[in-house]
Amino acid sequence: MTTKYQAALSAQSVLSEHRRAWNRTLIQALLIIAVIGIASWHVGLLDLTILLDGVPAITTLLGESLPPNFENVRNWVNPLVDTLAMSIAGTAVAVVCSVPLAFLAARNTSPHPMIFHSIRVVLNGLRSVPELIMGIIFVAAVGFGALPGVLALGLHSIGMVGKFFAEAIEHVDEAPVEAARASGASPMQVLYHAVLPQVLPQFADTAVYRWEYNFRASTVMGMVGAGGIGFELMGSLRIMQYQEVSAILLVILMMVTIVDSLSGRLRQSLK
């Protein structure tokens, strides 16, 4: 009887714990839904009157955008090349700078807590400033062209890529690290032989994903004078050539699709 009684108590305890966990999950879900509802109400997303009033204007704009006008498509080739080069160069700058910063920003590889917190603050600062604002600053500093776009994309990407790299380093398996230390390896040798091989696949995956993002972002950088296809798009918008705008948007969509396909193949080859 004692054994049966203990088994019953154990089962009841498990069910009670499961019920409490379910209740916590339900409360958290309700809180998240409430926050989403409040935010949606605050920005007017739940105001159907405003949304319905905007439908005629959107319909008119779509009508003026059709059919797309591809007469100047040859003039968009060089801006597209600039946009692609901008995204590649910006991503390369971010990856090269993020690798050493990530080792300093990871708890298990940073040489000192002060360095860890300082680098984390730097990464947070770079991440908090939108690349569009950085683009405006660099256009004012170095002039128009692709260079300010590369600098803006590179610096903003360091904040994100460095964070992801640091988190990958913090989640490495400690067994190879301890084995390298036990064999008398120096700190740099430990990083090179025990840590880096474990995180290289994540580094490569993050870099490819960031390149995808940077290509999309580089189209926006042109709108602030950083060159690329975004500059052509902004020019057509200013003179209200909506048929040309729709054509440029279709070209951008085609390029984004190609970049996504290439990045997918790169990720498969890096696995």
**What is the straight-line distance between the termini?**
57 Å
The arrangement of helices and strands along the chain is: HHHHHHHHHH
Strand fraction: under 5%
Secondary structure tally, helices: 10
Number of strands: 0
| Estimated structural class | mainly alpha
Average pLDDT reading: 81
How would you describe the shape? Answer: globular
Give the helix proportion (percent range): over 70%
Protein architecture, described:
83% of the residues lie in helices and 0% in strands. It has 10 helices and no strands. The termini are far apart. The protein is mainly α. The mean pLDDT is 81.
Summarize this structure briefly:
This protein is mainly α. The chain has 10 helices and no strands.
Write the layout of secondary structure elements.
Elements: H1 2-42, H2 48-65, H3 77-105, H4 113-128, H5 131-142, H6 146-170, H7 174-182, H8 187-221, H9 229-238, H10 242-270
Helix pairs in contact: 3-4, 3-6, 3-8, 3-9, 4-6, 5-6, 6-8, 7-8, 8-10, 9-10
